[in-house]
Q: What sequence folds into this?
């Protein structure tokens, strides 16, 4: 089980940024980031504090789910990502899967919106623009990606996505471990 992924999924489902979660738990944002990327392990007290803020507890968090293969993920099962204040509407497409190696999201950015810049991390990222166009920024280099285009890169450099255009952009974004 990936502890960090479970915590990140709970945080996103609650609509918290890493900074908001850190503030509510009296921790640093960098600690939350490291925890979500499985680079550090929390003490039991710290984990209980984080889970309490995220509306869970140790028993629920570690309860073993029935092991069965899930093939179809229905629209109504999507987990919304509450980032409206940033002009981002998103959905986690596959939730409650412990050992998945991909994390697909459906994202829509309003004109002028951009994702937070992510620090370099493990894995790769893939995107497919369904509607509109966007800019992918990798270490300050800008790549223009249009409708029907896709992108793929190693996430070992700073990266973010923005919509400097006049229309919404909708794209599939997949993190691959």
A:
């Amino acid at each position: 089980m990936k502890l960090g992924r479970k915590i990140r999924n709970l945080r996103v489902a609650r609509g918290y940024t890493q900074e908001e979660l850190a503030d509510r738990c009296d921790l640093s944002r960098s600690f939350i980031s490291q925890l979500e990327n499985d680079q550090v392990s929390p003490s039991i007290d710290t984990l209980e504090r984080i889970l309490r803020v995220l509306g869970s507890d140790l028993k629920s968090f570690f309860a073993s789910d029935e092991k069965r293969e899930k093939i179809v993920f229905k629209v109504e099962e999507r987990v919304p990502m509450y980032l409206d204040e940033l002009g981002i509407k998103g959905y986690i497409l596959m939730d409650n899967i412990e050992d998945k190696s991909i994390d697909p999201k459906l994202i829509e950015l309003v004109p002028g919106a951009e994702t937070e810049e992510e620090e370099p991390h493990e894995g790769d990222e893939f995107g497919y623009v369904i509607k509109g166009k966007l800019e992918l920024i990798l270490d300050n280099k800008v790549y223009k990606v249009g409708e029907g285009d896709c992108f793929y890169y190693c996430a070992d450099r700073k990266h973010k996505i923005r919509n400097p255009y006049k229309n919404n952009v909708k794209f599939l974004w997949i993190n691959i471990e």
Notes: The longest strand covers residues 102-109. The chain is about 25% helix and 30% strand. The longest helix spans residues 3-14.
